[in-house]
Fold this sequence. Notes:
Elements: H1 6-14, E1 16-19, E2 22-25, H2 36-40, E3 43-45, E4 48-53, E5 58-62, H3 64-77, H4 86-100, E6 106-114, E7 129-137, E8 148-156, H5 173-185, E9 190-194, E10 200-203, E11 207-212, E12 215-219, H6 229-240, E13 245-249, H7 253-258, E14 261-266, E15 270-277, E16 280-281, H8 289-302, E17 313-316
Parallel strand pairs: 8-9, 8-15, 12-13
Antiparallel strand pairs: 1-2, 1-7, 3-6, 4-5, 4-6, 5-17, 6-7, 9-10, 11-12, 11-14, 14-15, 15-16
4'-deoxy-4'-aminopyridoxal-5'-phosphate binds next to helix 6 and strand 14.
Amino acid sequence: MAPGHPTQEVCIMAGVAFLNGQYVPLEDAKVGIMTHALHYGTGAFEGIRGNWNEADGKMYMFKLREHYERMLRGCKMLWMDPGYTIDELIQITIEVVERSGFQQDIYIRPMAFKSEEKVANLNLRSLADGFMCLAVPFGNYIDSDGAISCQVASYRRIDDTMIPPRFKLSGLYLNSILAKTDAIAMGFDEAILLNMDGHVCEGTGENIFFVDGDTIATPSLESNVLPGITRDTVIALAREELGMKIEERSVDRSELYTAEEVFLTGTAAHIQGVGSVDYRNVGDGGIGPVTRKLQDLYFPIVRGQNPKYMHQLTVAEPKGAAS
Ligand code: PMP
């Protein structure tokens, strides 16, 4: 979306961000052009959804603690300390959501970053850290309610020996961005990356799953995937609620073409059915029955509509956007 697009402007006007220890209107939350993270991607961030529950007027955030645990692991990798405990980060997030006031689905973006305004310095340990958190209205991540088309990317997933992909590090996302941009330019909805061994890794912002009979396979964590929070959730739901077998293993590219069902998982993408890969239909090209069952289980859980899973949710009560 081009800068200044009207809908984005409305969102920015209404939001409240946390930056440098203070809550400020999103439109005033700025950093300088010498900020280290802007030049080199030295940030560790999270993508969190706030799911609006119209019936009880509350915003539900799923597995917030797990998101911040992952962010802090990324901080450790980058010699960063955001300066807040996980409990404090959770409180800041609730406050940002409540002050922003949006009564609709939102996306929450916390990021710890090298905030020092020093450009020609590649030594992480000599640079100061900052932390910010913002929330914006958010609908579908992938512009499709049906099964999507995917392309196996020509870019390979970055290896742990290059930039560790098990953390959400800002600079790492150039890899995803190049793959996704090419896929969309060629008419696909999403790219699937292979790792340096040539095995299936993940989508550009999603983990990947394959269904065959009563078994669901997904690339193991050593395949250079991000340890997805939705990935963990889906594994548990498939095992415990559907009684399916889960295999975390190396997955071959050819399995992409022959699986009965393929789906992607991510906080932004939720559980997304894949209808085709490289122009070959997966199953009948629609959303498969196991994918559908998992979606039917997952959506009520993250929206606070399944009492069994309420303990995995953090609640905020936004009172309406000021705009
Ligand atoms: N892989 C990548 C590369 C991602 O960016 C994401 C989104 N965070 C995921 C997988 C899915 O992770 P999660 O379910 O924790 O959102």
